[in-house]
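Worked example

This section walks through a single chain of length 241. The input is the sequence exactly as stored; nothing has been trimmed or padded.
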Amino acid sequence: MSLKLFLDMISQPCRSVFLFAKKNNLPVEVKLISLKNGEQHTEKFRKVNPLRKVPALKDGDFCMGESIPMMEYMAEKFNTPDHWFPKDLQKRARVNEYLSWQHLGIRMHGSKIFVMKVIDGPVVKLEVPEDKMARAMEDLNWSLDLIEKTFIKDGGFIGGEQISIADLVAIVEIMQPFASGVDVFQGRAKLSAWKERVVQAVGKELFDEAHKTILSAKDSVKQLDSSKVEYFRPLTVLYFL
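Given that input, the structure is written out below as tokens.
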């Protein structure tokens, strides 16, 4: 029985899991879940993940959520190359350092920009005050500055000379505000060079496949069924503070 991954490619964590599994040619079955259609709320999906969130993993009778431990699980189960999640104490510590920081760093601030620009106005018809948008952009730039100055190694990756799951987690989060129309790479030579190394490491075709949904999100939300708008209101409440 193959391991099943339940994903919606509009989700950053889903894209990191997808990239990791596909780049390593893991024997997994990808099942797409539409968050905008509320498929995460079905009783069938609740049995896979009671939190009703993606990504989710099902390996026989074993089910779990949360992208980072899912990638660690697959790395151990399928014995993927060591550079993804190094056994060396200090190299793994560097990977974990970034993974711990990013939740309230780039993930929070990148997601906020995406919600404000793609969800608040077009979907829930909520006007974002200019001062709130300006502060959100300041927070995003603060996070990007830290990634460039603290985490990315010159000529290398976040964990060192080879790509790791930290780089996958980082790039999908950075692509979220990019998909909203904010060119996060403009004027950032170090960030841009790192992105190109990540794309080269995973393969451009795979990278583009992982991001085609999010890069078309601004257009796809225009066709959203009005009955599904309520699924997006929790995001608006969360980020409109």
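What to look for: The radius of gyration is 18 Å.
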